Amino acid sequence: MFMNKFSSRILSSVTRPFSINSKRTMLTPFLESKRPKQSPEYDYSTLSNYKSFQIHHTTLNFSLSFEKSVVGGNVLFDLSTLNNSVNEIDLDTSFLDIKKVTIDGKDDGFNVEARKQPLGSKLVIKTDLEANKKFQLQVEFSTTKDCTALQWLTPQQTSGDKPYMFSQLEAIHARSLFPCFDTPSYKSTFTANIESPLPVVFSGIATGATEKEGTSIYHFKQEIPIPAYLVGIASGDLVSAPIGPRSHVYSEPHRLKDCVWEFSGDVEKFIKTAENLIFDYEWGTYDILINVDSYPYGGMESPNMTFATPTLIAHDKTNIDVIAHELAHSWSGNLVTNCSWNHFWLNEGWTVYIERRIVGALHGEPSRHFSAMIGWSDLENSINAMKNPEKFSTLVQKLNDGTDPDDAFSTVPYEKGFNLLFHLENVLGGPAEFDPFIKHYFKKFARQSLDTFQFLDTLFEFYPNKRDVLENVDWERWLFTPGMPPKPLFITTLADNVLSLVKKWVSSVKELKSSDDFKKAFSVADVKDFNSNQIVLFLEELVAQSCVPESSRINWADYATASSTLLDIYKKQILESQNAEVVFKNYKFQTTARIQPSYQQLADWLGTVGRMKFVRPGYRLLNAVDRELAIRTFEKFKDTYHPICKQLVKQDLEL
Ligand code: BES
Ligand code: ZN
What residues does the Peptidase M1 leukotriene A4 hydrolase/aminopeptidase C-terminal domain cover (predicted)? Predict the structure, then answer.
């Protein structure tokens, strides 16, 4: 019999299941007191009984209907029971229409339980399965109009004359595309056969296509086991071009040329750099899909096929670090995976760390530190803006009560996670000392899912001679305490010029009066050597002024001449920039300075971007200066946004 949670808890408090394996090094007494009862920790964000089965392979047979905005078809699982007999199979579903269930080809009864927000509706299949039995489970289904995993665009919503669809399944939306064991703890190889009238891309390697009366069936395989959240599908008027020896970029035709220019120089360099740091790229090809404007994220690490936002096309290659990030997930996240969303930092913190190591290796340590500094201020902003920092700003999360991982999503796992690894790198003696651990960790956990304690065990085991160093790390603060972590020392070379220009502006604003005064004191030469990331910091710091003492800070709204002259002097770098990061910070500065014409410009811009990183704070800015305009703008554009984005902005605006 499969033990219920209650009995396993009682048992494990008496005999810890893994203390039998006496080889494990003890952590500090504090950490030991926090150790979960089972490891890897149970995932409470799934309703499936994933612990009862081993999964061997999954076959997706999907058919896309653009007319109905529906994916229909079936999913076939090759499974076996473990050492216990099982009388029920529970799968995750969310707003799916379940049509039929068969086990080894024979029809079986099923029941879809009432929806439990936000986890969805459990699909319960009663059956008698003996221990250690291999079997095939097939479920026929279709998606419904409430699907949160997909966005369907009409031809009018794309830039061409064809419709478009894409999926976005992380963290718990796979269950809204197909019935599954929707947990990062559970990995399967995949075959996918996807019928569509338009080209299809998938999180795997294309193995050909079969023609079928006006449509085609596109075939793919993913031979490395992956969790359900990493499945990715998109279909539309997609074309592709090579951007490296193992890489292509896919996009709608009108963007292809810009995509090739933006990415072709760097992708292979990134892969080689990461291979040096960790070990060989195991997935074969590395392609990028540049999605349509409404794509809600910067990027998503679908294996073999990174999905990315068109806002990466900055025409100056400065947003390419997002590609370094998604590529880095090929090791952190896709090979070595968090076992539940409580340990999401293992995915994202490690990925930011590797992303910045790539940047550092290619552009020098000052660039790595510069990017870390920007991350630090993002972290401060994010924690300051949180409605519930007590709950959501600890590194290790506690979503066991059914909290929606989308609500827990923030900069914290990214930047606190990065800073923890950066701190460890420093206290352990720098990259030379830390790099062997990186290789060891990724080798040890490749193709597995783990929790924070397995990471800690591995760390303590790897450095038996540096135990004192590791014991001195303030683990309680890093892992379980809300708020900012200890601040590291950053190399500030690339930021220094930016910050001194900010200081000069802030102090001059009170002294100088006319536009001409400012034009004598400042000129475009001030910023001519700044790259876009430095312009971003410049604008951010003009607003935050964290580099000047609190008593000297100014309110830009009181200095209209100064702010408008500033924008006039640096017009080319700020107002004319096509880099979405700069465009966004420009609106942040202008709305802070209450430059009224910018309100409508920001509103218009919010109709052209779908990336939540810009859309959500964009509406917050607008709401702060003109709530009526914010609401009117949201009403106008809401149906062009991805369903998740629409829902979150609605919450943000308290509608
Ligand atoms: N895996 C994430 C995106 C994600 C996380 C989607 C959680 C849904 C739920 C991806 O790797 C990511 O972190 N994207 C970032 C870009 C990055 C450079 C920080 C983004 O979208 O902004
Ligand atoms: Zn990421």
Answer: 493-653
Residue predicted with more confidence, 594 or 377: 594
Sheet containing strand 215-226, strands side by side: 106-108, 96-103, 134-143, 70-81, 53-65, 188-196, 215-226, 205-212
User: Phi first, then psi: what are they for 207, rounded to 5°?
Assistant: -120, 15
pLDDT digits (tens, 9 = 90+) for 289-304: 999 999 999 999 999 9
DSSP secondary structure letters along 218-287: EEEEEEEEE-GGG--EEESS-EEEEEETTEEEEE-GGGHHHHHHHHTTTHHHHHHHHHHHS----SS--E
Does residue 619 carry a catalytic annotation? no
Closest CA to 174 of 139, 211, 149: 149
Residue 4 scores a pLDDT above 50: no
Atom of ligand 1 nearest to the CA of 297: 21
325 lines ligand 1 (CB under 6 A): yes
Contact (Cβ atoms closer than 8 angstroms) between residue 521 and residue 402: no
- CB-CB neighbours of 474 under 10 Å: 12
Residue 626 beta carbon below 6 angstroms from any ligand 1 atom: no
CA of 610 to the centre of ligand 1 (A): 14
The closest alpha carbon to 48, from 340, 398, 346, 448, belongs to 340
| C-alpha 355 – ligand 1 centre gap (Å) | 12
Per-residue confidence at 23, pLDDT binned at 50, 70, 90? confident
CB atoms within 10 A of CB 370: 26
The mean of the pLDDT values for the chain is 95
Atom 15 of ligand 1: nearest residue by CA position: 298
Which atom of ligand 1 is nearest the CA belonging to 309? 21
pLDDT(6) > 60: no
Give the ligand at the shortest distance from the Cα of 174. 1
> What's the CA-to-centroid distance between 271 and ligand 2, angstroms?
16
Pick from 3-17, 93-107, 290-304, 534-548: least confident? 3-17
Mean pLDDT of 386-406: 95
pLDDT-above-90 percentage for the chain: 92
Ligand 1 centroid to Cα of residue 345, in Å, is 12
- Residues 542-576 have pLDDT tens digits of 999 989 999 999 999 999 999 999 999 999 999 99
Query: Alpha carbon of 46 to those of 6, 41, 139: distances in Å?
Result: 18, 13, 18
- Separation of alpha carbons 353 and 358, rounded Å: 9
Q: Residue 216's CB: how many other CB atoms inside 10 A? A: 18
307 lines ligand 1 (CB under 6 A): no
Instruction: Give the active site residue among 414, 441, 463, 599.
Output: 414
Instruction: Single out the catalytic residue among 195, 252, 262, 326.
Output: 326
Quote the pLDDT of residue 15: 36
Mutate which of 289, 300, 334 for ligand 1? The one with the most ligand atoms within 8 Å of its CB, which is 300
Among the bound ligands, name the one nearest to the CA of residue 378.
1
Catalytic-residue membership of 581: no
